[in-house]
Amino acid sequence: MRSIMKTSFAALAAASIAATAAIADGHQLSGDLKITSDMSNPAPRAVMEGLVADFGALHPDLNIELTIVDREAWKTQIRNALSANPPDVVNWYAANRMKPYVDAGLFADISDLWAEEEFAALASTKGAMTLNDAQWGVPYTYYQWGVYYRKDIFEELGLEEPTTWDEEKANCQAILDSGRKCYTIGSKFLWTAGGWFDYINSRTNGYDFHIALASGEIEWTDDRVRQTFANWRELIDMGAFIDDHQTYSWQEALPFMVNGEAASYLMGNFSVAAFREGGLTDDQLDFYQFPVINPDVDFAEDAPTDTFHLTSGAANPEAGKEFLRFVTSADVQTKINSGDALGQLPVNANSSIDDDKFLAEGFEMLSTNAGGGIMQFFDRDFSAEMASVGMEGLQEFMVFPDNLDDILARLEDTRQRIYQ
Amino acid sequence: MFPTPIEKQSRGMQIGYQAFLPVALVLWLLPLLAVALFSIKPDADFANGNFWGLPSSFEAFNNYGKVFFESNMPRYLLNSLLITVPTVIGAVALSAMAGFALGVYRFKGNLLIFFMFIAGNFVPFQILMVPVRDLTVSLGMYDTIRGLVLFHIAFQTGFCTLFMRNFIRALPFPLIEAARVEGIAEWRIFWYVVLPLMKPALAALAVLIFTFIWNDYFWAVVLTQGPSAQPVTAGITEFNSQFRAAYHLMSAGSIVAALPPVAMFFLMQKHFIAGLTLGAVK
């Protein structure tokens, strides 16, 4: 922690120098800069408007035109917006979600930006921003996934945070013996099961294998995939998950943990606010990184990343690039991710974060202990159609593990249809 | 008369009826009661699973306050009003005139036109989704209140005309003939003779269309996008944030959204029932 603070200070200093340099350059920026953002919820909207105001103050000659589109609506509008009279900069998501627009030539290649020195601090998501050996956007925020658990139950049973799969299973057995369930999950809307698959698969076979599977290069019936499901099945056969989880949404599965009927939840950091509202204090709630399964592969973490992109039809690419430099700088990322703004994690490793133990643990984990790579989550890494069929299969597997052969055959059919 | 009125049945049947009525009522209203209960609960009750118990704290003022002062709900309610009222006026006015023409005049193709109005009712509107969206986009009326109103009027007029035409057919035709003998212009016959007689039908239809349009969700989602034009039925999803659904606020919002048609029904009850029986008894 201390070392992080130190580097943050150093970085802040460095960033302010960089910022002055930017101001020096900035005098040449003029004309219009059109930005279309999907940060439409109240807090993100304020962040986006603040960003534009600050950037505008740095570049007084630049006329910035900001359009904010409803976040859900943007998912269908983006193609239209990019192909006819495109803005200079747009919001989108990392990894496979940007593939259609990269393939269609709608996003601009910004590998030259990533080659700049300051971008080394964004290394954790470089893989997620890379397609066809080039980078196509910059990250501005993400949040960690991991196991949130009831510290008081662990203490009552004398358990430690597990670091290996065997410890995880031993802990789980102890929790089951005490009459509780190990994990709560609500798989009604499928995606929660995707989180479990991401973690078990990447811990079993590694990040590269996981991404290769996501991009359709590996057969679902491959023995290594089967190994992932075999590991998962160990937990299912123990009865580790709550009963009837297919009938709950992720929110409806919260009470099991809040009321102490289940001890942990594999979830994103947005769940912390809900836990706290449900009455859990920071003494009762804690977080650990998903444990090692195969010691030969490095940690890969789910951290869905939101991004900015320069469009290929941008009328003012210079100003657009300068804006991308601006939103990735350490102090800007610190500011926009603070608790009263987005309340998430800055991607820039030199940023500092709010005094919150979950944010602190998440930031440290993603900046220093995710050497394998950053996954974007099942439904962002896999193509949309594969993800929807895939997540149905994962849910079915969790309820009827004996159907595995059927499920894998079905997923393999889908893969061949989609990717070939 | 069937069914036999309950007061003429055996005592046993009456007791059974009296016992089951409250049960059926509660069962029937259970979802609504749950929503009402949820709307006064704090967010915490949903995180710790207290769905059916007493609220851990009484948050009615807080929740409804947020709905009215910290969300776009007032704007959505206004949109709903701006969509519903013109639609009711437009659809009822057009169909009264169309109904008059189809009910009073004999001309070639009268029946054919009437059948086309009826046939329009049998087209499931889901299959019109894509063409209608494209049409509104190319007319530049996508995501506007105007676009939604025009479409609703066009679509509701079919049903309204069927209703109006049959109602006018049932009116005593000699009244119109008498007026004609006096040499009164046709539009004055419509305005001074037929329209006053149609008042119960107009009221009934207005209430009906008001509820239809107010409760419309499908077209609201297809044709509008944001607080600038979206009615309350679609706007209620605004309480789904990026990660979590605010059930308590959504419930409070639903109650607020459901009140106008309910109030409308109670206020216009007399007309509503008068309209129904007037149409039925010749």
Percent in strands of chain B: under 5%
Count every beta strand of chain B, where a strand is a DSSP E run of 2 or more residues.
0
Radius of gyration of chain B: 24 Å
The major sheet of chain B is characterized as:
none
CATH-assigned fold name of the largest domain in chain B: MetI-like fold
Low-confidence stretches of chain B: none
Beta fraction of the residues of chain A?
5-15%
CA-based shape of chain A: globular
Name the chain pair whose interface involves the most residues.
Answer: A-B, 19 and 15 residues
Secondary structural class of chain B? mainly alpha
What is the name of the CATH architecture of the largest domain in chain B?
Answer: Orthogonal Bundle
- The CATH architecture assignment of the largest domain in chain A turns out to be 3-Layer(aba) Sandwich
Short note summarizing the structure:
The complex is a heterodimer of chains A (420) and B (282). With 420 residues, chain A is an alpha/beta fold.
Fold blueprint:
The complex is a heterodimer of chains A (420) and B (282).
Chain A: H1 2-26, E1 31-37, H2 42-58, E2 62-68, H3 71-83, E3 89-93, H4 99-103, H5 111-114, E4 130-131, E5 134-135, E6 138-142, E7 145-150, H6 151-156, H7 165-177, E8 181-183, H8 191-205, H9 207-214, H10 223-238, H11 254-258, E9 262-268, H12 271-277, E10 285-288, E11 300-302, E12 305-310, H13 317-328, H14 330-336, H15 357-368, E13 373-375, H16 378-381, H17 384-399, H18 404-419
Parallel strand pairs in A: 1-2, 1-3, 8-9, 11-13
Antiparallel strand pairs in A: 3-12, 4-5, 6-12, 7-9, 7-10
Helix pairs in contact in A: 8-9, 8-10, 8-17, 17-18
Chain B: H1 11-38, H2 44-47, H3 60-69, H4 73-104, H5 110-121, H6 129-138, H7 145-170, H8 173-181, H9 186-197, H10 199-214, H11 218-223, H12 232-235, H13 247-267, H14 269-280
